[in-house]
Amino acid sequence: TGTLNVTELAEKLGKSPNEIIKKLMFAGVMANKNQDLDDDTIELIASEYGVTMKKEEEVEKSDLLQYIEAEDEKKLKERPPVVTIMGHVDHGKTTLLDSIRNTRVTAGEAGGITQHIGAYQIRTEEGKKITFLDTPGHAAFTSMRSRGAQVTDIAILVVAADDGVMPQTVEAINHAKAANVPIIVAVNKMDKEAANPDRVMQELTEYELVSEDWGGDTIFVSMSALKGEGIDDLLEMILLVAEVEELKANPNRRADGTVIEAELDKGRGSVASLLVQNGTLRVGDPIVVGNTFGRVRAMVNDLGKRIKKAGPSTPVEITGLSHVPQAGDRFVVFEDEKTARQIGELRQQKQLEERRGEQSKVSLEDLFEKI
Ligand code: GDP
Ligand code: MG
User: What was the pLDDT predicted at 107?
Assistant: First the structure.
């Protein structure tokens, strides 16, 4: 699936289409002016002219979205923010996720056994909900985005105060910026002797993250994830940013959303964790998830509790799908099972055909390996 055709690439490189066609020929690709080129070929040809082409940031949207009916603005209601925690290894992402998760015990939800379903939701003392993606690290974020799914509303950038900005800190900033997601900086490990928050602030100015104290507009929260200090401040700031972002959804419609993770369970079959992004998902709903389909047989929340319905920004785990979908796949609920089955089967068929097509195509890389 190309992002540029020959003529467009020629334009970008300031060359004539004929010259590009010649280059392609030398590379073993027979192409005409209107031929779409895949990313690897584009990179290869560009590199011959000493140009490094970045792969298109604009990701292809899932064609499953075509089945979602247009939204009526008047029906939109506030929804909880969905937050991803990012940052350099060992700066405290997991500790922070655990600390935040523990806060909900105080909110009267004790007794549930935490179930890892790829995300969890807390309720603050004011009764506001926040959803956290439970898969720290950037891989989940980027692989979802590369598949056209955006589930994160707010990114928490964890920076250890005794270590400062490190390579994966910068990577995280780039991901969040590319996704146009607002960043809150959590300056962590403040309990440590060597903590130097000023240095963190100083270093982050290079990446246009300037604290409000220094005349910028980025929120910085000092904390110790280990000791549970600063958690309330952080939650408050998340809600503040969420309010500014005016996050909304319509709970009174058929659900759609994204797969957070999925696996094949020996006893239960295909098990998928879904984030409901719009509408309300119900047990019994006919559903298409990526290239698979089914009916929501059972649904549990992040406390392992069986539930019958789940509104916007709620993470749930469902069973009842014909196959195992992939993280980043979209899901859409249909009016009736027949339609869901038809569309699901069509998509499965298409996927099979695409796979066959890929196998018979000789890639440029293969060609060069042979030389
Ligand atoms: P991750 O790789 O970003 O998920 O980092 P972890 O949460 O696994 O933390 C790495 C190490 O730092 C662990 O030994 C944690 O106990 C420790 N750690 C995390 N947060 C804090 C903190 O606020 N203060 C101190 N002193 N140690 C922390
Ligand atoms: Mg970790």
Answer: 47
Local structure of residue 229 (DSSP, 8 states): B
CA distances from 56 to 1, 40, 43, 160, 288 (A): 12, 12, 11, 32, 28
178 lines ligand 1 (CB under 6 A): no
- Residue 147 near ligand 1, beta carbon < 6 Å: no
Query: Residue 283: pLDDT band by 50, 70, 90 thresholds?
Result: very high
Q: Sort strands 82-87 and 154-160 into parallel, antiparallel or unpaired.
A: parallel
- pTM comes to 0.80
- pLDDT above 60 (res 366): no
Cβ–ligand 1 distance for 297 under 6 Å, the answer no
Test site for ligand 1: of 84, 90, 157, most ligand atoms within 8 A of the Cβ: 90
Confidence band of 57 (pLDDT split at 50, 70, 90): very low
366 is a catalytic site residue: no
Provide the H-helix boundaries in the chain: 6-13, 17-26, 39-48, 93-103, 138-146, 167-178, 197-205, 231-245, 337-360, 364-370
